[in-house]
């Protein structure tokens, strides 16, 4: 152990601060230090505190720190702040509320600038967490910038995620759509002495019927006077450490530090050129609630590693209606990945590696036409791209291919799914255009009305890239667009309540399970479409000039055309 590592292990605050700065700046010496300290990790309890700006997160963290110090615990507080446009550093608003702990050697407080990183965390947060863990801290508390569709990365890093709500913050429907229900291990209703706290609690209780059936505890707090802090700490301690922290030993400051096994055995799978063991014939992409659908018998869970990085989650394999299927949670369990952050290539490559030839993709959408009512399903046959900068091809790096994408949906699968909707008693329309927007924010009224004038049918944020990559992988693909509400163009959009959204989501989830089961049962054994030969005339590059590394990387897709 070098002198720097020794000083950190001995609690030298200056050495710790220097290492944190080095990790944030990508300094090779600091990253090497993480590797040396890796054996000393997996000790700290990692707690994430997230919620909307103004919820009192910093004051709550300050109160938690005081309670932990009374118990003799040591802790590190990582306050992730927006980046200053002037200095490039953190705007230190959070630290102002924690001044009483600065003289305490057992409390290490660090502000971290997001520096343009999405997800509510700084890029180097995972590495700094590992550093604090190795320094012997009993608790590492991470306060995020704020929660929203793009700000829920904390669920993949913390062992316990506390979502802080506050009465009177406004649009409860938007909060529901943001996915906070799925990432919370504990809800804290802060400023609970204000009017509306009981209403927030009732709405949370009503929402508990969604998702995977978990019922996170709800604690009312008033952080300014310490009310409820002891109960909140008890709830934090009671949550099982389902994400096992591990140091960034590989030397990456943004290396993920959690693997959620969720009680299942996981099997790492490495995919290489030409290596494919058939494990599933039909892939299903949607929410994690599909894992527990009636009739599905789970057999194993596969942790996939692809040349394009990690998929959104582990693949859950099993049988449904006598067929071998593979489920993938698009946004990850806990809904922790925003649409703009999805690794579409890894998700589709993983399906190909498992032997999947058909994909049924379920997606919640907003309606752009009066005729597509909430709880209706639309099976689109066209896409319109309004995303920006997303990677939607496997090709490049010395190999050029141009697939035909005039008809992006497999006609055979669209017919099967339409029939499955009829079997399940779901009102569905076959045909229409899915407008794929960037997100994570929803449309403005001006945008929504323009999309309507173009004749678009539904609006979502995910399926276009999946469809393109599935075509390149010669996998049949169909979208099941489940209407949750009208987009903001509709005169009654603002009148939608939490109860309305809950009812639509619950009914759509039940319909999705029934439609998937019926579609899988009715799926023909043989493919009669042209999807399985999409690359037969698409590759333009002279085979002899394709780099060996590219050939190996894409072998599972192209080997049959290089014989």
Question: Can you describe this structure in just a few lines?
Answer:
With 563 residues, the chain is an alpha/beta fold. 29% of the residues lie in helices and 20% in strands. The N and C termini lie far apart (53 Å).
Can you tag this structure with a few keywords?
alpha/beta, 20% strand, 7-stranded parallel beta sheet, Rossmann fold, 563 residues, 19 strands
Question: Would you mind describing this structure in some detail?
Answer:
The protein has 563 residues and is an alpha/beta fold. The protein has 2 domains: 42-238, Rossmann fold (3-Layer(aba) Sandwich); 267-558, Rossmann fold. The chain is 29% helix and 20% strand. The protein is built from 17 helices and 19 strands. It has helices at residues 3-9, 13-24, 28-37, 57-70, 93-96, 125-134, 172-177, 180-183, 197-207, 229-238, 344-353, 411-424, 445-453, 463-472, 498-522, 548-553, 555-558; strands spanning 45-51, 75-81, 107-113, 139-143, 160-165, 186-189, 218-220, 266-270, 282-286, 297-305, 315-320, 323-329, 358-367, 377-379, 382-386, 428-430, 433-437, 458-460, 476-486. The strands form 2 sheets. Strands 8, 9, 10, 11, 12, 13, 14, 15, 16, 17, 18 and 19 form a 12-stranded mixed beta sheet that branches. Strands 3-2-4-1-5-6-7 form a 7-stranded parallel beta sheet, with helices on both faces. β17 (433-437), α13 (445-453) and β18 form a beta-alpha-beta unit. The radius of gyration is 25 Å and the shape is globular. The relative contact order is 0.11.
